[in-house]
Structures are given as C-alpha cells and as structure tokens.
Amino acid sequence: MILTPHVAWASDEAQQALADQLMDNVENFVAGTPTNVVLGAY
C-alpha cells in the first residue's frame, strides 16, 4: 500500500498549469472577457 499526502498532485507541471490558468484569467478579466463564468452574464 502506498499512502500519499494531499500535496501529491503538486508536481512542477501541475503548478505551472495552475500559474498559466491564473495568468489567462487575469489577462482576460482586464480585457473584459473573463473565463469560466458559471452563471452567464458577467
């Protein structure tokens, strides 16, 4: 049996993907076109 802590997902690639998503969201928000809007109109 192998047990891993909750941070086992935190590979360099996963952290880079999160940073990329963050930058995309900030850039889109500043441009007036936010991403991942759940309830429709922003």
Poorly predicted ranges: none
Beta-strand content bin:
under 5%
Overall residue-averaged pLDDT value: 85
The SSE order reads H
Ends distance: 47 Å
SS field, number of helical segments: 1
Shape: elongated
Proportion of residues in helical segments:
40-55%
What is the alpha-carbon Rg in Å?
A: 15 Å
Structural class assignment: mainly alpha
Number of β-strand runs: 0
User: What characterizes the major β-sheet?
Assistant: none
Please explain how this structure is put together.
The chain has 42 residues and is mainly α. Helices cover 48% and strands 0% of the residues. The chain has one helix and no strands. The longest helix has 20 residues, at 12-31. The radius of gyration is 15 Å and the shape is elongated. The protein starts with 11 loop residues before the first helix and ends in an 11-residue tail after the last helix.
Topology:
Elements: H1 12-31
Sum this structure up briefly:
The chain has 42 residues and is mainly α.
Write a concise keyword list for the protein shown above.
42 residues, mainly alpha
